[in-house]
Amino acid sequence: MAVKSIYISRLPTVIGTLVVAGVGVGIYSRYMMSVAHADNATPPRAFGVGPAFLSLPLHSSDQVNHNTKRLRFILPTEAHVSGLGLTSALLTYSWPKGCMLPCVRPYTPISHSDDPGFLELMVKEYPNGKQSTHLHSLQPGDTLRFVTPIPGYKWTSNKHPEITLIAGGAGITPIFQLIQGILRNPDDRTRMTLVFGVNTEADILLKAEFDDFQYRFPDRFKAIYAISNPLGPTQHAHGHVTKQLLSKVLTATPETKDTKVFVCGPPAMETALVGKGKQQGILGELGYTKDQIHRF
């Protein structure tokens, strides 16, 4: 009991020390980035390879559906870009009112790494999610601290000629970032099929962007939506992302040379798709090997 009391009493001091140390590293990192920017005339990057501890003010908060908001944060200057690598996330830090401990959660931006002046997150609020509830409560002018980038899958142009992307719910954000990055790169000719499973049509996040992608890149991008609980008649597939649906809509088979399947969604969905332990998932049943599958 005494040890526990000492630990609790020292916890704020420990956290404070870490924050101060992180701030120092972040300031030095941003200084070095500014020197590099001055040397090569490239846009300054808000985030480098190490800790940033960068507080960004909220510009706007837009309600997307009943439980999801699109949050736009202002970068240090109008010239700044995030500079994040493709599929990277950002670790966020806050100490919501009434919480004994701070909240640290990763979020994948939906803005492109080269968009100047702002950074966008799409955040789903969960019933007992302290960080998501806090982010939904933010008002323009409030700040959020971004601790450090979290590198994602190391993508290079044309690494895979054709890929499959399977998402569920808020798991669409790293999938969207990868699709957007590929299509905005004129040197990348990768073909993509997206299968997005949601509860209702209102939960098809970023649908306007996907519609635009399909219109502008009809030979390289296709989106299929699976609605598990449609509120009325729907033109999309009815049900979950199943073996039958995937075998019907996927053009990149396990035999396709250098193909890759990217998966991101709720734990139950990911387990159904990739399996658990020795249990084979849907993708395994379709013939995909473990090295052909990447989970975000």
Give a short account of the largest sheet: 6 strands, antiparallel
What percent of residues are in strands?
25-35%
Residue share in helix: 25-40%
- The overall average pLDDT, rounded, is 88
Q: Low-confidence parts lasting 5 or more residues at pLDDT below 50?
A: 1-29, 31-38
Structural class call reads alpha/beta
Give the strand tally. 14
Would you list the SSEs in sequence order as H and E? HEEEEEHEEHEHEEHEHEEHE
Give, in spatial order, the strands making up the sheet with the most strands: 4-3-6-1-2-5
Computed over alpha carbons, the radius of gyration is 21 Å
Please state the overall shape, judged from the principal axes of the Cα atoms: globular
Rounded to the nearest angstrom, the distance between the terminal CA atoms is 40 Å
Put simply, the count of helices is: 7
Provide tags for this entry.
single chain, globular, 7 helices, alpha/beta, six-stranded parallel beta sheet, disordered N terminus
Question: How would you explain this protein's 3D organization?
Answer:
It is globular, with a radius of gyration of 21 Å. The chain is built from 7 helices and 14 strands. The protein is 30% helix and 27% strand. The strands form 3 sheets. A 6-stranded antiparallel β-sheet has the order 4-3-6-1-2-5. With 296 residues, the chain is α/β, with parallel strands linked by helices. The longest helix is centred in the N-terminal third of the chain and has 39 residues, at 2-40.
